[in-house]
Specification:
This protein is mainly alpha-helical. About 60% of the residues lie in helices and about 10% in strands. It has two domains: about 5-190, no CATH class; about 215-310, no CATH class. The strands form three sheets. The protein has a three-stranded mixed beta sheet with strand order 1-2-8. Strands 6-3-7 form a three-stranded antiparallel beta sheet. Mean pLDDT is about 90; it is low at about 1-20 and about 355-358.
Length: about 350
């Protein structure tokens, strides 16, 4: 679909949205169109003598990752990543997550046709800050802003390679590309947590498949990921513990809730996380969770990406399926879910019901 048709689609979405969201959709639409119109075909970029060899090497590698991905799943390649956009900034956009001050739950914004999302993304950091400030003042929410280096438009636009990808090394870059490409073959409306967890899982596993790591490197990677999973699970457990404190204390004001958070961080979170890092010979300076800003919104954001990771891994292990077989299994389960009369989420349907091969 060409840019003009995409622009018309955006206008229709704006007309069907509330007035409060029209400005946001317009800004996002113009930002996305700017990325598309400034993109250059990869064939042209690779033959351009003014482009550095480092950039050309990254673009070529992404093309190889893309070819591998679609061949692996027996899918026809899409036009995604056939062009490259060189940005004038390091991050392509900024996510804003908002949450009530007494509850670790991301506020969802909903759009016609596109569904609901537990965050909003902005191409401008100033716009992200303005939105966060408005949500804090008008709705008394807690907010968290984080930079984004890659994202998927889920087929609404033909995504381009972004120079923000190039901050990653080759292995991390492959995980990133496989993650984003996964969204092109499987996506569940209104279930951001499961979508991101699945893309994370498949992205990481496909990187191992692509690089054909030897036994020693696989073991090293396995140990690293095991620690990351253990850390992720501990942070999720601690977030739930913090929510329990809110529930028990019943704070009547933002200030009371802030005190509960500060006490929790000092009495519980920081010590637990540091002990976990030290078990891997990591100092406080090397312990990345201790460097992060934590509040209800950032905890909610973290749980969006880590919530279902362990269940996905356990489900595949119990089924004994290859990666491609596992995707087919999930797709089949989703078809069953759509045809069923059961209420609830596909995530509950998949993990509670899907433990036998069919």
């Amino acid at each position: 679909m060409d840019v003009s048709i995409k622009a018309m689609s955006l206008i229709v979405l704006m007309l069907l949205s509330s007035c409060a969201k029209m400005g946001y959709l317009y800004e996002q639409g113009t930002g996305q169109l700017s990325l598309l119109t400034s993109a250059k075909k990869n064939t042209e970029l690779l033959s351009d003598p003014s482009i550095s060899p480092e950039i050309k090497e990254k673009v070529q590698k992404i093309g190889e990752y893309k070819d591998f991905f679609y061949k692996y799943y027996g899918k026809d390649p899409s036009q995604i990543y056939d062009k490259t956009t060189l940005l004038e900034r390091e991050a392509v956009s900024y996510l804003v997550i908002t949450s009530p001050w007494s509850k670790i739950e991301a506020h969802k914004e909903c759009f016609v046709f596109m569904g609901c999302f537990p965050y909003l993304g902005f191409y401008s950091l100033d716009s992200a800050k303005k939105y966060a400030k408005r949500m804090e003042s008008e709705h008394d929410y807690v907010t968290y802003i984080r930079p984004v280096y890659a994202y998927s438009t889920l087929g609404y636009f033909t995504d381009t390679i972004l120079s923000s990808f190039f901050v990653f090394d080759d292995f991390e870059l492959s995980e990133l590309i496989f993650h984003e490409l996964f969204h092109t073959v499987f996506f569940i409306k209104n279930e951001v947590n499961l979508n991101e967890s699945l893309a994370n899982y498949f992205g990481k596993e496909m990187a191992v498949e692509y690089f054909k790591l030897d036994y020693q490197k696989q073991q090293e990677l396995s140990q690293k990921r095991h620690f990351q999973e253990k850390m992720g699970l501990r942070i999720v457990e601690l977030a739930k513990e913090l929510q329990h404190r809110y529930n028990n204390s019943g704070p009547k004001s933002r200030e009371e809730a802030k005190n509960i958070l500060e006490n929790f961080m000092n009495e519980r979170f920081n010590g637990d996380i540091l002990a976990l890092c030290e078990s891997q010979s990591k100092s406080a300076q090397d312990c990345s969770p201790l460097k992060r800003e934590w509040n209800n919104a950032s905890f909610a954001a973290y749980m969006t990406y880590e919530g279902d990771s362990e269940q996905i891994s356990k489900l595949r292990q119990s089924l004994g399926l290859s990666l491609s077989e596992f995707l087919s299994y999930i797709q089949k389960k989703y078809e069953e879910f759509q045809k069923s009369t059961k209420e609830g989420s596909f995530s509950s349907f998949l993990f509670n019901k899907g433990h036998e091969k069919t």
